[in-house]
Specification:
The chain is mainly beta. The chain has helices spanning 40-47, 81-86, 159-164, 170-173, 220-227; strands spanning 2-6, 13-17, 23-25, 73-77, 96-100, 105-106, 112-114, 121-122, 125-131, 147-154, 157-158, 179-180, 185-187, 198-203, 206-212, 238-240, 262-267, 271-279. It has 2 domains: 2-53, no CATH class; 73-279, Fumarylacetoacetate hydrolase, domain 2. The longest helix is centred in the first third of the chain and has 8 residues, at 40-47. The chain is globular. The N and C termini lie far apart (36 Å).
């Protein structure tokens, strides 16, 4: 099942897509794609309703992040073997976690805004894992039961802000528009194995990243369980699970985004994002 949120920024409404890609409104059912709406019970309620019996959404509305009320965005650094290699770093013994500000959230086709003074804005395509059932100290064997579904994510980063502005990578990860999600949330039951997904990202039609989630160092259930050791995970929280090789910082010479560039990011079965780069 594919779930989306559509409409102007800050006023998005929930919807469901059928197999042909037609979008139907869920707003009449009450609630949103947040809290109980992301639980097993909430998702089961939507599954029982035939999309064709719902109001068809007319036109070509903007898509926002597919989940409402996101409390935190947890990033995972160096979780692909080939990415660690291109950075010249040893494989981590434990997952490296960081946070991105929720004000960085954006829709899957919104512009990417280059912050003032930025010279090194980089791209990182990532599998996004959305929590549906809250928990703390989650057992790895049951961690998948806490997942509502998956989406395409991009962890845009300003490398100078990240490494040269007094430490703390949070600064380079949190500019407005640096955390686009979507175009939709694909529920867990529709993705039998999240470790068999192909990821690809292009800039101006030049492919820069191509990898597979099979190359992740730490698996999805491991990441969910590990993160829950340090903080409770709430419905709507998003874990960005790392990126494969091919980031701009790893190119020789380095390549970074400039106004006018077009970024395209796709994960098999989860859809495609498109972002035109603009100046602040």
């Amino acid at each position: 099942m594919r779930l989306a949120r559509y409409g102007s920024k800050g006023s998005e409404l929930p919807g469901v897509l059928d197999d042909e890609g037609k979008l139907y409104a869920l707003a009449g059912l009450g609630g949103d794609l947040k809290d109980e709406g992301l639980s097993e019970t909430g998702l089961a309620k939507v599954r029982t309703i035939a999309a064709g019996s719902l109001p068809l959404v007319a036109g070509n509305p903007r898509f926002g992040p597919p989940v409402a009320g996101i409390g935190k965005i947890i990033g995972v650094g160096l979780n692909y073997r080939d990415h660690a290699q291109e950075c010249g770093l040893e494989l981590p013994a434990e997952p490296t976690l960081f946070l991105k500000a929720t004000s960085a959230l954006a829709g899957p086709f919104d512009p990417l805004v280059i912050p003032r003074g930025a010279q090194s804005v980089d791209w990182e395509i990532e599998l996004g894992v959305v929590i549906g059932t809250p928990g703390i100290y989650i057992d790895q064997d049951t961690a998948m039961e806490h997942i509502a579904g998956y989406c395409v994510g991009i962890d845009f980063s300003e490398r100078d802000f990240q490494f040269k502005r007094g430490g703390q990578g949070f600064k380079g990860k949190s500019a407005d528009s640096f955390a686009p999600l979507g175009p939709w949330l694909v529920t867990r039951d529709a993705i039998p194995d999240p470790h068999q997904l192909t990821l690809a990202l292009s800039v101006n039609d030049v492919e820069r990243q191509r990898g597979t989630t099979a190359d992740m160092i730490f698996s999805v259930p491991k990441l969910v369980a590990y993160a829950s050791e340090f903080m409770s995970l709430q419905a709507g929280d998003v874990i960005l699970t790392g990126t494969p090789a091919g980031v701009g910082m790893g190119q020789d010479p380095k390549v970074y985004l400039r106004p006018g560039d077009l970024v395209s990011a796709t994960i098999k079965g989860l859809g495609t994002q498109l972002h035109r780069v603009v100046a602040a």
